[in-house]
From TrEMBL:
Gene3D superfamilies registered for this protein in UniProt: Bira Bifunctional Protein, Domain 2
EC number in record: 6.2.1.n2
Keywords: Ligase
NCBIfam families: PRK07080.1 (NF005479)
Enzyme class: ligase
Species this protein is from: Burkholderia pseudomallei (Pseudomonas pseudomallei)
Name of the protein described by the UniProt record: Amino acid--[acyl-carrier-protein] ligase
This protein's record includes keyword Translocase: no
């Protein structure tokens, strides 16, 4: 059992599907998500970012090129479809009638679930040739999939991620990240949510992953803005500030204006987690939230 999950489902904010980490959302929940999304747009308006929107799936060849499976095979989700003939279809129907496994005739397609909103962006930038002198900033937003079923409502399998992605020189990326650490903190302070910034690492797989995670920390590549959401006082990462160095620039051949390998970084906003944080700390009725918070999200309505 999970107390927070049960409260949210009972209040009708989240709708259980019977699968851990897979929820429907109510109109009340979505109003908050939409307001947060608009707030993030206002916060980043001065960056004049290029807006790119992709479906929650990407090309399998580009996914393979990203090396995601080297680091996070446990989180990846692939799309499979029936690829058999009529005889195979009859076998599927027989399996369904008997309650047996029917997935043998399912084969992987060339579509993979998007693991992070920035992943479809890099091949697009690479195809355009060298970056302009001041690099690029891209605004991305997508549902993302990570296979980590859990009773914890802050750990959904399908969730929305908003990102600003910076591509350019190391100096440009580091300045961008520091700027967004400060902006992100002001954002969450304005929402009157307790928060802290801490060094972090990604959940790299296996024994080798522990070494990579340690290296990521040693190089100060990832920071997170943490908010206590669960009742057990665990801290949940709601914003992340990442410096990828030249990893994606090398993989896709992205070049700066002077033909050097581009570096990349991003700030990511977990919209469901931020929404859950607001309900957890301000109550389940947004009309009863502090007026200052309501003004930030919806203006003087």
């Amino acid at each position: 059992m999970n107390k927070l999950r049960d409260e949210l489902v009972e209040a009708g904010l989240l709708i259980s599907t019977g699968i851990q980490g897979l929820f429907g959302r109510s109109e009340r929940f979505e109003r908050v998500v939409d307001a947060l999304d608009a707030y993030i747009t206002r916060l980043g308006a001065d960056q004049h970012a290029e807006v790119l929107r992709f479906p929650p799936a990407m090309s399998r060849p580009e996914f393979e090129r990203s090396e995601y499976l080297k680091s996070f095979p446990q989180l990846a989700g692939t799309v499979h479809s029936f690829c058999g003939n009529e005889h195979d279809h009859q076998r599927v129907l027989q399996c369904l009638d008997r309650g047996d496994d029917w997935t043998e005739s399912q084969k992987p397609t060339y579509v993979v679930m998007t693991p992070a909103a920035c992943y479809p962006v890099y091949p697009v930038l690479a195809q355009r040739g060298a970056l302009p002198e001041d690099g690029r900033i891209v605004d991305a937003f997508s549902y993302c999939f990570r296979h980590e079923p859990s009773l914890d409502p802050t750990r959904m399998q399908l969730f929305r991620m908003r990102e600003y992605i910076r591509v350019g020189t190391p100096e440009q990326i580091l300045a961008f990240r520091q700027d967004w650490i400060e902006r992100g903190t002001r954002m969450i302070d304005a929402l009157q949510l307790p928060n802290s910034i801490d060094l972090a690492n990604d959940p790299f797989f296996g024994r080798g992953g522990k070494i990579v995670a340690s290296s990521q920390r040693d190089q100060n590549l990832k920071f997170e803005l943490l908010i206590p959401i669960e009742y057990d006082a665990r801290l949940t990462a709601c914003l992340s500030f990442n410096y990828h160095m030249d990893h994606f620039g090398l993989l896709w051949g992205i070049k700066t204006a002077d033909a050097a390998v581009a570096h990349t970084g991003c700030v990511g906003f977990g919209l469901e987690r931020l929404t859950l944080g607001l309900f957890r700390h301000h109550g389940l009725d947004p009309h009863a939230w502090p007026q200052a918070v309501r003004d930030v999200l919806w203006g003087h309505r």
